[in-house]
Amino acid sequence: MKKQDVFSLIQLFLAPVLVILLGLLLVINPDSASILIARIVGWILTLTGIGFGIAAILERDHAIRKGAVAVLFACVGGTLSAKPLLLAAFIGRIIGVLIVSRGIRDLMISRSYGYSRILALITTAVGAVLVVLPMTTAISSMPSRWAEADRQYPAPEVKPVFSPVAPS
């Protein structure tokens, strides 16, 4: 087996598993996962902006363009790091679209390699759930909603119809 074939197999199986896990994390606990992802993206953008700033200082070619990109990346990254909820509302759907596209790509690749399409179908399904369902209807938020509904609309007190009689 060639080295390229091994990397293709790893890409065909490892990447879908990681994408499925990310999708499930976003479905099960969307708020915390979205905030974590937004902060990671924010830090990456901030560090990229710093890198572009250093490149603009060191290289004189396109220094103004690189400097503008550096400022833009640093500002967006800093904002996402400081206030991740700005992106948290949209990140689930964005990642859902990316997961669906990855699943479709894996379906096409699995056909040419002759492998099972199960992981690709699961990837596509998880991505579709993330796109279709709003992030407020997550599985993890349901128990807290039930408790809130119980506080707003308490159940009526039920009196027993038959009272227990002690044997004589």
Offer a quick outline of the entry.
It is built from six helices and no strands. It is mainly alpha-helical.
Could you estimate the helical fraction of the residues in percent?
over 70%
Overall pLDDT, averaged? 76
Number of helices: 6
Structure summary, number of beta strands: 0
Identify the overall geometry. flat
Distance between the termini: 86 Å
Total separate domains: 1
| Uncertain residue segments | 136-142
Which oligomeric form is depicted?
single chain
Question: Cα-atom Rg, whole angstroms?
Answer: 25 Å
Q: Describe it for me?
A:
By secondary structure, this protein is mostly helical. The model is unreliable at 136-142 (pLDDT under 50). It has helices at 3-28, 30-58, 63-82, 85-113, 118-132, 142-152.
Any descriptors?
6 helices; mainly alpha; 0% strand; 168 residues; flat
Spell out the blueprint of helices and strands.
Elements: H1 3-28, H2 30-58, H3 63-82, H4 85-113, H5 118-132, H6 142-152
Helix pairs in contact: 1-2, 1-4, 1-5, 2-3, 2-4, 4-5
